[in-house]
Amino acid sequence: MGTAPLNENFPQINFDKNELKILYKNYMSMDKNKNGIIEYDEFFDVPELKNNPIVQRLLNVFDKNNDGKISYYEFIWGLSALTSDATIEEKQKIAFDIYDINKDGYISNGDLFKTTKILVGENLNDIQIQQLTDRTILRADKDLDGMLSYEEFCNFTKNIKIQDLFSIDVFSGLDPYNKSMDDAEVEDDDE
Fold first, then answer.
1. Which is the most buried residue in 20, 33, 63, 145, by most CB within 10 A?
2. Residue 97 belongs to what H/E stretch?
3. Which CATH architecture has domain 92-168?
């Protein structure tokens, strides 16, 4: 994978030109109403995403302008942060953002409870989730304000292999012999 900037509002991306063409074609195939932007519900038309409880949180994190839609740039940025080539800092940031439900820059007890509930599903009851949440806040909250800052979150998760937990193979399931996407409807600036 290569690394290239999208624009000044987005960080580096971990895809080369050919991979961007593949992702563009896949992005456009999810755009059912062909308006060039994917609404959240269009993601849930994909069977592999339909029943995944964390997808809604990821969409909220990817949606940088909070318009309820995912632009191609938001899509690329979000996926890039989840690749194995992303830095630990990129992964920590996306993990933090998944837990920071109200996007205030802190993970509150409520944020942590709600996200943990999404992640564990029916495996724990609300009392067990609250106990886990309280224990986590007590251990990680160094300034004792009842919330986790980004720095506290990073310090608390530094011994967790976050790079493994927040990595996906974006191109799994693709035919490696058909990865060239010559038929992708993307104009090539080099031609």
1. 20
2. helix 88-99
3. Orthogonal Bundle (1.10)
Domain spans in the chain, listed from the N-terminal domain onward: 1-86, 92-168
Provide the 3-class DSSP secondary structure of residue 148. Answer: strand
How many whole angstroms separate alpha carbon 25 and alpha carbon 23?
A: 5
Distance CA 20, CA 35 (A): 19
pLDDT in tens, 46-101: 877 777 888 888 999 999 999 999 999 999 999 998 888 888 888 899 999 999 99
Q: Which of 76, 74, 55 is nearest to 64 (CA)?
A: 74
Q: Which residue(s) pair with 13 in the sheet?
A: 4
Q: Which residue has the tokens 């300034």?
A: 143
Contacts of residue 101, Cβ cutoff 8 Å, sequence gap at least 6: 57, 60, 110, 111, 114, 115
